[in-house]
């Protein structure tokens, strides 16, 4: 097997023209450099230099070998030293739902070159599988999937509100709604609904908590992106249930109409998931700090 140091000695002798000059550059003795060249020639079975009285002249085989290895040696020599590696930016591989990342997480991440982010979007089950396979460092999860290797830290509690287009007129007074939600429920069933998926997971849960029964309607629109649902509502396409972090500002700007912000809150916890073995890692510690979580 060829030793890398033999190649380094060969390249320097080729460049400098003498063993003594190459030895000085490499901080080796002349005999050591001579031994490297001899060992390389013996292993390859070719002569790399013509030994002249004051100079080492490369043979045609030596010239071809130099062309092959010089770039590789330069690349290796350009790798940072230990001190340089200490200044390498920290890489954080984060898996997250798209909406929560863009609306909540992104504005809390610091600018600067000290950290490099690789962000992967997906559903919670897929993200947890990526985390278990060590393809990401942390996952933002909208539910806790119990795995012995994982730990979860609460980072946000989202509340769900019933929202409508900005031009919506509700034919039921607030006094009537506060006293009895039956009339509101009947009216809402007649409206066009925009859902995240055909089984209306968010809307059905909201309905069950607020009205105490299962909702039996078919959505007019199925859009698997909460931000797009928000935009569709603003354009007057229908009603839906959205998390507060997505609609608070839009309600304040009158781009959405708040129909119902329940006194009995319908909530869901959002967690940062990470491997237990990495709970003290820089990636986990920094993300929790940026998200305002203090352990």
What is the CATH topology assignment of the largest domain?
A: D-Maltodextrin-Binding Protein, domain 2
- How large, in whole angstroms, is the Cα Rg? 33 Å
Shape: rod-shaped
- The CATH class name of the largest domain reads Alpha Beta
CATH superfamily of the largest domain, called what?
A: Periplasmic binding protein-like II
Runs in which pLDDT lies below 50 for 5 or more consecutive residues are none
Largest sheet: 7 strands, mixed
As for the number of domains, it is: 3
- Based on helices, strands and strand pairing, what is the structural class? alpha/beta
Topology, number of strands: 11
**Averaging pLDDT over every residue, what do you get?**
90
Content of β-strand: 15-25%
SSE order: HHHEEHHEHEHEEHHEHEHEHEEH
Cα separation of the termini: 53 Å
Tally the helices: 13
Give the % helix.
Answer: 40-55%
CATH architecture of the largest domain: 3-Layer(aba) Sandwich
How would you summarize what this structure contains?
By secondary structure, this protein is α/β, with parallel strands linked by helices. It is built from 13 helices and eleven strands.
Report on this model:
This protein has 295 residues and is α/β, with parallel strands linked by helices. The chain folds into three domains: 76 residues, Arc Repressor Mutant, subunit A (Orthogonal Bundle), CATH 1.10.10.10; 90 residues, Periplasmic binding protein-like II (D-Maltodextrin-Binding Protein, domain 2); 109 residues, Periplasmic binding protein-like II (D-Maltodextrin-Binding Protein, domain 2, 3-Layer(aba) Sandwich). The protein is built from 13 helices and eleven strands. The strands form three sheets. Strands 3, 4, 5, 6, 9, 10 and 11 form a seven-stranded mixed beta sheet that branches. A two-stranded antiparallel ribbon has the order 1-2. It has a two-stranded parallel sheet with strand order 7-8. β1 and β2 form a beta hairpin. α2 crosses α3. The longest helix is centred in the first third of the chain and has 18 residues.
């Amino acid at each position: 097997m060829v030793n890398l140091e033999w190649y380094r000695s060969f390249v320097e002798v080729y460049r400098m023209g003498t063993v003594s000059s190459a030895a000085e550059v490499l901080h080796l003795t002349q005999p050591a450099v001579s031994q490297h060249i001899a060992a390389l020639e013996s292993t390859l079975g070719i002569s790399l230099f013509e030994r002249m009285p004051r100079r080492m002249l490369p043979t045609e085989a030596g010239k071809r070998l130099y062309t092959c290895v010089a770039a590789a040696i330069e690349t290796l020599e350009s790798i940072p030293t230990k001190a340089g590696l200490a200044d390498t930016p920290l890489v954080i591989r984060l898996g997250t739902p798209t909406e929560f990342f863009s609306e909540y997480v992104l504005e809390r991440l610091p600018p600067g070159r000290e950290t490099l982010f690789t962000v992967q979007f997906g559903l919670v089950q897929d993200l947890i599988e990526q985390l278990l396979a060590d393809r990401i460092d942390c996952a933002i999860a909208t539910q806790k999937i119990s795995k012995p290797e994982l730990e979860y830290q609460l980072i946000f509690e989202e509340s769900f509100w019933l929202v409508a287009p900005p031009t919506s007129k509700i034919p039921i007074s607030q006094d009537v709604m506060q006293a009895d939600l039956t009339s509101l429920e009947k009216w809402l069933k007649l409206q066009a609904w925009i859902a995240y998926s055909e089984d209306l997971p968010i809307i059905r849960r909201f309905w069950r908590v607020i009205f105490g029964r299962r909702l039996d309607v078919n959505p007019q629109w199925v859009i698997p992106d909460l931000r797009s649902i928000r935009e569709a509502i603003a354009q007057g396409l229908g009603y839906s249930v959205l998390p507060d972090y997505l609609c608070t500002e839009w309600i304040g700007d009158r781009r959405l109409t708040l129909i119902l912000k329940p006194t009995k809150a319908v909530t869901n916890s959002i967690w940062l998931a990470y491997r237990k073995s990495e709970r003290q890692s820089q990636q986990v510690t920094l993300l929790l700090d940026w998200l305002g979580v203090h352990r």
